Amino acid sequence: MYQKYHDRLITAITANTTINAEKYFGELEKPEEGNFLKASLPIVYIDFIQDDTSKPRTIDIDFSLYIVHMSYSKNKTIRTNTQAEIHDVLKEIYKQLAFKSIEDSQPLELKKLRKIFDANAAGGYLTVYQKEISMTIPNPILSGGI
After folding, report:
1. Are 97 and 13 a contacting pair, CB within 8 Å?
2. Main-chain dihedrals φ then ψ at residue 85, nearest 5 degrees
3. Residue 95: which H helix or E strand, with range?
4. Of 9, 40, 113, 130, which has the fewest beta carbons less than 10 angstroms from its beta carbon?
5. Neighbours of 21 (CB within 10 A)
């Protein structure tokens, strides 16, 4: 059940954009190692976080988006351009997701954005933002979807 919404969220982010997005598999466990493909940056990792089944008719499911970019130069202009690129990705994510529905969900709820890493790492300057997203879906038990 969650896989479908996870996959559709990736599709919604990447549709008609140049954003690289994929499922999160622990790539940020040790961000200082900078284990990222330079050609894929900036990248958005999408992680299913939790659900809330306390309501009988709906389930709230939460995801985290990790927006990652790295500058491989000490040059201030290049680092400023890299920062502008990550802000452009954030803007595109908002345009792609704000007030939109995924499958049969209610409109997405875009929650907090926070910077979780910003430091010299693995020969570059790594910046990582975390954006929380929540969606409410019909309870599949009621609709026979499980």
Report:
1. yes
2. -65, -45
3. helix 76-97
4. 40
5. 21
**pTM of the full structure:** 0.91
Tell me if 108 sits within 8 A of 134, measured CB to CB: yes
Q: Rounded to whole angstroms, how far apart are CA atoms 111 and 62?
A: 10
How many other C-beta atoms can be found within 10 angstroms of the C-beta atom of residue 30? 11
Average pLDDT for residues 69-95, to the nearest whole number? 92
Crossing angle of helices 2-14 and 76-97, in 10° steps, is 120
Sign of CA dihedral 84, 87, 92, 93: positive
Distance of CA 93 to the CA centre of its chain: 8
User: Would you state the torsion angle of the CA atoms of residues 45, 141, 51, 11, taken in this order, to the nearest 10 degrees?
Assistant: 20
What does the pLDDT average to over 87-107?
95
